[in-house]
Amino acid sequence: MAFREDQIQRYSRHIILKEVGGKGQEKLLSARVLVIGAGGLGSPVAMYLAAAGVGTIGLIDMDVVDVSNLQRQIMHSQATVGIPKVLSGQKTLTRMNPDVRVIPIQDRLTAENAMELFSDYDVIVDGSDNFGTRYIVNDAAFFLKKTLVSGSILRFEGQVTVLEGHTSAPCYRCLYPEAPPPGLVPSCSEAGVLGVLAGTIGTLQAAEVVKKVLGVGELLTGRLLLYDALSMTFRKLKVPKDPHCALCGSSPTITTVSGSSEWVCQVPAS
Amino acid sequence: MSVVVRIPTPLRKLTGNQGEVREEGKTVREILDGLESHYPGIRERLTDESGELRRFINIYLNEEDIRFAEGLDTTVKAGDEVSIIPAIAGGSR
């Protein structure tokens, strides 16, 4: 692939890094990344991936932009309140970098559509807001052998990990075998979330995606990064692969993607 | 054995907003007993009716998940750190 003059300028700070170079920038431009949730985490993830020149970015989210989103969802703005998040996001990303093809999917991710949606992408990024979706994302990524970069936030704390259950690394079910029953763990709209936390965790996810595409460095596979904004501490814990994991263990009981993404969404989309 | 127990933000309501408390015990189970006696109500957030650790809560002794050691019977020693890590799902809304 030959770079245009404007691309050499745009990506010059990447190309000059020996770990990236022209070859790495080509990899980024031909990479296809699906971002689940165009909200708090999806915003910084998608914006940094677009800036980095990731060639194809899929955005899936069924919500429209609400004014209460703007405290942290920096891909959206006052001007796009009321517009589907995936279209608001597409506008922001293509304005930032016209090299990027954004695929807006205004839909709910379900057990029925996950496999087909994921099959077009190299890396999956989870920035969803409920456990039902997180297990669907994990299971579909596992069956399709895709790397899953998972991030979550609540109040002042965030978690990041990279899941590759199709390898010797763990999947989300190795880390958390079952979802909490509805009501036991509060959602962000019930419990609140520090806006900037979405940026911290989302940019860490973006860094892992870029590293995965480039094939450089050490990913957060088999490790869980915990960030506490109040104490300003980062900690890394080990996440072993569970040999008895119902999905990626030696005698799995889960053989298809199933489950609902709806049962935990009892809170209005505000 | 006195160990530090790290409390995640969703459970801090029960510990008077403390993110770190000290408890005595020889095993993780005894540490949880101590927690419950000082902060009533915390145990049911961590273990189910049969006393097993809930499947969406992880307890780490230092950097290791106790599910992959001796579970609640994992022994602790002075200076260890016990961390309670719940699954969280926020991100989009």
TrEMBL record, chain A:
* Coiled-coil regions, chain positions: none
Question: What interactions and quaternary structure are annotated?
Answer: Homodimer. Forms a stable heterotetrameric complex of 2 MoeB and 2 MoaD during adenylation of MoaD.
Q: State the species of origin.
A: Leptospirillum ferrodiazotrophum
Report whether Nucleotide-binding shows up as a keyword of the record. Answer: yes
Which Pfam families does this one have? ThiF
Its catalytic activity?
[molybdopterin-synthase sulfur-carrier protein]-C-terminal Gly-Gly + ATP + H(+) = [molybdopterin-synthase sulfur-carrier protein]-C-terminal Gly-Gly-AMP + diphosphate
Ranges of residues in domain THIF-type NAD/FAD binding fold: 11-245
Primary enzyme class: transferase
Does this entry carry the keyword Metal-binding? no
Cellular compartments per GO CC: cytosol
What does UniProt list as this organism's lineage?
Bacteria, Pseudomonadati, Nitrospirota, Nitrospiria, Nitrospirales
**Gene Ontology molecular function terms on file:** ATP binding; molybdopterin-synthase adenylyltransferase activity; sulfotransferase activity; thiosulfate-cyanide sulfurtransferase activity; ubiquitin-like modifier activating enzyme activity
Q: Which family does it belong to?
A: Belongs to the HesA/MoeB/ThiF family.
Any idea which UniProt keywords this protein has? ATP-binding, Nucleotide-binding, Transferase
Q: Please give the function described in this protein's UniProt entry.
A: Catalyzes the adenylation by ATP of the carboxyl group of the C-terminal glycine of sulfur carrier protein MoaD.
The protein's matches in NCBIfam families, at most eight in alphabetical order, are given as: PRK05690.1
Protein name (database record): Molybdopterin-synthase adenylyltransferase
User: What EC number(s) does its UniProt record assign?
Assistant: 2.7.7.80
UniProtKB/TrEMBL annotation, chain B:
| Coiled-coil region(s) | none
From what superkingdom does this record's organism come? Answer: Bacteria
Q: InterPro entries recorded for this chain?
A: Beta-grasp_dom_sf (IPR012675), MoaD_arc-typ (IPR010038), Mopterin_synth/thiamin_S_b (IPR016155), SAMP1_3 (IPR054834), Sulfur_Carrier/Prot_Modifier (IPR052045), ThiS/MoaD-like (IPR003749)
Q: Which PANTHER family does the record cross-reference, listed alphabetically?
A: SULFUR CARRIER PROTEIN CYSO, SULFUR CARRIER PROTEIN SLR0821-RELATED
* Name recorded for this polypeptide: Putative ThiS family protein
